[in-house]
Amino acid sequence: MPFFDALSAVLPPGRIVRDPDVIAASSRDQAAWAPQGRAAALVRPQNPEQVRAVVAVCAEHRVPVVPRGAGTGLSGGANAVDGCVILAMEGMDRILEIDAAEQIAVVQPGVVNDRLRAAVAEHGLWYPPDPASSPWSTIGGNAATNAGGVCCVKYGVTRDYVLGLQVVTGTGELVRLGRRTRKGVAGYDLTALFVGSEGTLGVITEITVRLLRLPSGAPTTVVGAFDSLVAAGRAVAAVAASGVTPAALELVDRYCLRAVDDWKNMGLADLGDVLLLGRIDSGNEREAAELQRCFDTAGAGWSTRSTDAEEAEALFAARRLAYPALERLGPVLTEDVCVPRGLVPEMLARIEGHAKAHDVHIANIAHAGDGNLHPLIVVPAGDDDARDRAQRAFESILDDAIALGGTVTGEHGVGLLKMRGMHAELGPEVLALHRSVKAALDPAGIFNPGKVL
Amino acid sequence: MPFFDALSAVLPPGRIVRDPDVIAASSRDQAAWAPQGRAAALVRPQNPEQVRAVVAVCAEHRVPVVPRGAGTGLSGGANAVDGCVILAMEGMDRILEIDAAEQIAVVQPGVVNDRLRAAVAEHGLWYPPDPASSPWSTIGGNAATNAGGVCCVKYGVTRDYVLGLQVVTGTGELVRLGRRTRKGVAGYDLTALFVGSEGTLGVITEITVRLLRLPSGAPTTVVGAFDSLVAAGRAVAAVAASGVTPAALELVDRYCLRAVDDWKNMGLADLGDVLLLGRIDSGNEREAAELQRCFDTAGAGWSTRSTDAEEAEALFAARRLAYPALERLGPVLTEDVCVPRGLVPEMLARIEGHAKAHDVHIANIAHAGDGNLHPLIVVPAGDDDARDRAQRAFESILDDAIALGGTVTGEHGVGLLKMRGMHAELGPEVLALHRSVKAALDPAGIFNPGKVL
């Protein structure tokens, strides 16, 4: 049976989209620089069984499958490849279960992160992973990329909350991995293997996550303004040494502050060249004071801490607005390197060097508390030469992260943008292990081919 | 070259043991009931390169490799198989690095858990995973089995602390997996795949763990005595609903209490039929009071909470002594089922039913806070009929754990004792995925064959 006949046979009417314009609109993520291919079709499954049937047909016909959630990724992981079927999982968006006593939730992959957070909050529970995309990104996409966020420094990443998955495998079978219990070591941790595999091992059709108790009371925001990256780096080191564990510790540099000022006229750049924004969980006033003391001792020209929930949120605005403010200036090439946190100042200095050497503007947002930096390379739209220089700066920064004992991607994933960097980081023997695992679980090689590996 | 000549060629003199008595003494773990084979040799490597060379020789000659740490396992995972080389990793016991600023440690696999904890404590740091075997068991063994412990309910298991590994693969290569940074998503999470794989995918030669700050001040122990498992189960549910997160919540039943009394004459059984022992981190007096209130409201006949470090430790004695007290009575068949924590009372009732149905004594220790139960089946030494009945009770309990949505092993691993149970739990499709992964990473099938899968 021809491919499209076979596909139509397993889906209800209206679930296969072949209109090129509609397909094009769902053929890429937010990585402005990553290439995209031309998909053969977009499929909108309604349930796991339909996903299974589609994958089985694709496996038989050796048609690539590219799963996607909301398309908020920053590495090109969800970009179409030529001739592929895009599996748009957004429509599978039911919260199947919230078990308050067991502190777990079971959701379909299309559930938006913030929606899950709001739903479990009604039960006094909290789903911590908080990528900046949380108003739009889906739990399926978060799991596929092992998404991070600002609270990782204290609460960990998506992998730390995924207990179990239902997935469709490369042989077109629908299986359950992992568990619902708090502990469990029966067999290999295939759940952890699928989390962060960026759609290259199978399609996630259901996710079981563990939840924490919702913290009572609003957190405190502590802000420090510094006149140099070196001084801010000293403050980060002082926090690490102090024993305080902030729930977030973010760095925003002068390029970002100016971009936000140009947009929102907030006067942030007048405070200093670099802002550090710390968040302390409710009820730890002593820790908030200690965090501010760390900032002051390290040489903050100005510091403050919030006295109520509204102020705490307002003081985080600089961080929240930095990325959209930069996007207004032109296409942004987003880095995601992570280095040992003590080397954040050294890495920032090297980034500054690459900006000069390659004559590009590089702004920095960083999850400073865990060494995860987001250098943002901005070039004027349409300037091909600047784009080439930016590309070279991007790769140089990846190499420096590796040289400092770090990784090319802390939380965004490899996708298309960081394949060379990842290969350099892992080396040929470990890459060979990856290829063995990929071949074992996706023997037909249909899942997101040409990504990651 | 004959196998032993090839082995001798890659090791210095004295590293290969062929004396049958010495080999026999290192041919099994603490699972009294698991079968053991006859090893061809015991090898005591001194460094990762020697491990690599031994594995390469074994792969070439298709000789099974059984890695072992301190042999404290409870599932037969380290038991010799016929004709194997036992890789005794205890001698590779160097703490290679403690980086206080980054809060990580790098250790060889033979480092004993308590030794690591003591070493990092000198830097004000804490390695949380605390299996009961911590005075003897090694970090390599802990990682290979993804060991748990009593503090998991708040602080997680070994996997949550292993950032990176150095391993020897099935093709005899020495590679690094994972990272030293707090976050990282470059490639598949092969580190998590190796953690808990019980020596079936490769040999761990180095472990990088993340550390927490050492809590300041002693924890508080809260004890409640109950006249029934049902009342104790009510208390566990009340704790879950209260929002209090104890750092441990252990249950010890009347069989254990009597065994401890018979040994140490502590009068524990006079307090009640079941004890719950909770631990609250220092500085949370309100939570300690709330925990005690949960116990009292659920019907505790007696309760108390510690006022100093010494008392806190003393009140935990019932839990610490329970297992050795039972071992005095005869061979112990140790279960490790984990169920949704709300079903702990139901699971305990079913266990009681199986004890009656099969006419065996079953004592219970449980990590009640996370639903991980350790029914301990004790039979008189040499009573073959009782042993058969115990075996049947063991399997029935596994089936009930699965029926309640749980797992056959929460933290001890599959080894030899839980292979049938694990197969029943995972089902044929997921087992096939396991076999694919195993074949991909251990193509010669030399690593711990006949275990787990």
Describe this structure in words.
- Two copies of one chain form a homodimer.
- With 453 residues, chain A is an alpha+beta fold.
- Among the domains of chain A are: 92-213, Uridine Diphospho-n-acetylenolpyruvylglucosamine Reductase, domain 3 (2-Layer Sandwich); 217-324, Alpha-Beta Plaits; 329-412, Alpha-Beta Plaits.
- Chain A is built from 15 helices and 18 strands.
- Chain A has helices at residues 3-9, 20-25, 48-61, 113-121, 139-145, 152-155, 190-194, 229-242, 254-264, 285-297, 309-315, 317-327, 344-358, 384-403, 419-441, and strands at residues 16-17, 41-43, 65-68, 85-88, 95-99, 104-107, 125-126, 162-168, 174-178, 203-210, 212-213, 220-226, 248-252, 274-280, 302-305, 332-334, 361-367, 372-378.
- In chain A, helix 14 (384-403) packs across helix 15.
- Chain A is globular.
- At the A-B interface, strand 9, helix 7, helix 8 and helix 15 of A face strand 9, helix 7, helix 8 and helix 15 of B.
- Chains A, B: Belongs to the FAD-binding oxidoreductase/transferase type 4 family.
- Chains A, B: GO terms for molecular function: (S)-2-hydroxy-acid oxidase activity; FAD binding.
- Chains A, B: It comes from Nonomuraea endophytica.
The oligomerization state is homodimer
Q: Give the rounded overall mean pLDDT of chain A.
A: 95
**Which outline of chain A best applies?**
globular
Biggest sheet of chain A: strands, sense, closure? Answer: 7 strands, antiparallel
Q: How far is the N terminus from the C terminus of chain A?
A: 32 Å
In terms of DSSP E residues, the strand content of chain A is 15-25%
Q: In terms of per-residue confidence, which ranges of chain A show pLDDT below 50 for 5 or more consecutive residues? A: none
Q: Biggest sheet of chain A, strands in spatial order?
A: 15-12-14-13-17-18-16
Structural class computed from helices and strand pairing of chain A? alpha+beta
Biggest interface, chains and residues, is:
A-B, 80 and 79 residues
CATH topology group of the domain at 92-213 in chain A: Uridine Diphospho-n-acetylenolpyruvylglucosamine Reductase, domain 3
